[in-house]
Design a protein that fits this description.
Chain lengths: 106, 703
Amino acid sequence: MSQSRLTPLERRQRHWRGTVRLTWTLGVVWLVLVFGVPWLVSSLAPSQTPWARVYGWTAQGALVGFWLLVLVYAWGMRQLDRRFDMLERQASDGAENAPERPGRSR
Amino acid sequence: MAPRTRPNAQGGVAKAVASNLNVRRLHQLYGGWVLLLLIAVLALMALEWMGVPKAWLGLGFLVGTVLVYAGIGLACRTTQPDAYYVADRRVPAMYNGMATAADWMSAASFMGLAGALYLSGFDGLAFLLGWTGGFCLVAFLLAPYLRKFGQYTVPDFLGARYGEPWPRLIGVVAVIVVSFTYVVAQIVGVGLIVSRLLGVAFELGVFLGLGGVLVCSFLGGMRAITWTQVAQYIVLILAFLLPVTWLSIKQTDNPVPPLAYVAQLEAVGVKEQQLMHDPAESAVRGWYAERYEQLQMQLAQPEQALRQQREAAQAQLQVLRAQNAPAWQQRAVVRELARLPRTVEEAKQLWLEELARIERKALPLDGMPPHAQPFARADRVGEVDHNERRNFFALIFCLVVGTAALPHILVRYYTTPTVHQARLSVVWTVFFVLLLYLTAPALAVLVKHEVFFSLVGSPIDALPSWVSAWQTVAPDLLRVEDVNADGLLQLNELSLGGDIIALAAAEIAGLPFVVSALVAAGGMAAALSTADGLLLTVANALSHDVYYKMIDRTASTARRVTLSKVLLLVVALAAAYVAAQRPADIVFMVSAAFSLAAAAFFPALVLGIFWMRTTGWGAVAGMVSGLGVTLFYVLSNASWPRQMLGLGDPGPLWWGIEPIAAGVFGVPVGLVVTVVVSWLTPRPAPQVVAMVRQLRHPSSNAL
């Protein structure tokens, strides 16, 4: 969709709102993975649970879940950057706009 | 899946020419390194087959890899600050991920993790989840924003966001406390590996290891350590995966250990039930329980107990002499007399050590909980231990938040070309960390399967050769004693230290000795790469943040880099000096560093980016109070630092939380104090607000 009619200020505000929304969404999923899953698992009835499989799924599933989360974050942020025209044009873009660049040798 | 990296397209012609570093060239170089390693393993295998002594092979492998690291370090020497502090900001995402993974995975990950999982079953998952889950916080809350900020150190950010000089100064103090604690633990690890492998004294091992650390980082700073860490990652991951994969093929015919181990875990669970009710096992437990009581009685009245032991032996000797017993019988008693402790102090120490050693051995399964069941205890099956459950979650909290606050990890995200690459770089870091972390639980279970099914119940004089080999080299890591004298091994008669699970994996899998040498080199690479990153972080905090930013703002770039190098040497020597005093507990020191980092940095950094209203006073008060509460809890409850500082007995625990998870109090206190003090103090200046606005978007073309 075209965002060309937005003013720079609006684009900036919407980009940030999108960033915060993405961060919250993934953050809640993350909380469930880190604390919720082990909590649920440790509340299962000891005698009726196939512990070996539960252990395997907790250990492997949570880790792969973390990886997917950072992957989705990187992808989602790229989409946001593109949508609101915030892509970096050059490698030095971020650096040159930093508030202070002491002692640059080049 | 693989994000493409394009530094040349983004870096501009000048940079590409200045460095002639491009991704294809990097792929070729490191591909060559993998090949070289495999060829070296095969060549040494041939030499081993031809009869070259094992000690030579082990030494050759270790020295060879360290020389390669040194060569990379030398080739990357520099006097430019951008190269020295942030590797020119041209490290492609994938290689930055690999270097960060090596920086991240210390001796504690390489050796300690599998050991913790082996010994504490489900409880050990706290380390597994905590040490990986934290990277999500790094990705969401810090890495892209710090990259956009684009300076050199973490105190740089605190100084720019919260004003000079106090926020920066407190940041520097926290960086030094955290990283120094962590680096001492790493150097202890290096010393242990070197001394064990070369058979030299521990102190000498420490200083030899230190030499290995310095050749990598001294001349080239961040640029050098980045490219050596990539090489070190390759060594450590090959060294970790090779034996586990072999073990997995041997036991299950499945070459992917993370998929293969669940079936083995089921078998282990069944065997656990059998062992708990095995009569021979309970006889052994009974023997240890008796011995435990006896020791406690001796310790209650040490003088009397020692006198009795002496008198009993002398009386026996007299009886033997009176009966004119054979000389060998008399000699045995004389020897026993000579072995008795000379003084009461000596006796007490000896008995206390034995007491600590056999404390768990009177419990079922050698004190290990049933492997797969959460918060269970072998002596109380089916019950959830609520205190352990609380500590489990407290520890996860400290490890995840600490991961997102460790300065030596955060500075890695200054080194990528763009913000987007910083985000991708976290993806790669987690990918490379997972290669090891998905396999570690498999290693623990496969080794347990091997112990339960091949060792337990077999005759003691027919145990595999690696058992006796390790018992001679490292009796603190592996010990077998036939206490019920039935000639068979019971589980509780075998004492295993956690570190041996990874170190002996190659021998347990029945691989040739060369692979064990590779494993030792891998452990060394893990410890070296982390120590490098930490040392550089401390030295840079001193030279950049203290000297340049606070003392001499006119210092030339060459002078600052030279000062960094000198300070690196000083800090390294200081760390080696402390490490040579053998501080007791590596895992404790590492975890304490996580708690301290979490409490000191996490609230100030995250609120500084996400909450405009955070003020300098708020941040200062939050950092001081968070760090203070954490330090107070560690110092008032952990026995080891209390002994060091000559304080009395540990104080009462709060809600039963162990001091290893002190950050669970420090972080919330820091957060609340930061917010409250920020509300009470005037709003941040407009230029600070403008700076934070800039951080929030990768490109500033919208401003």
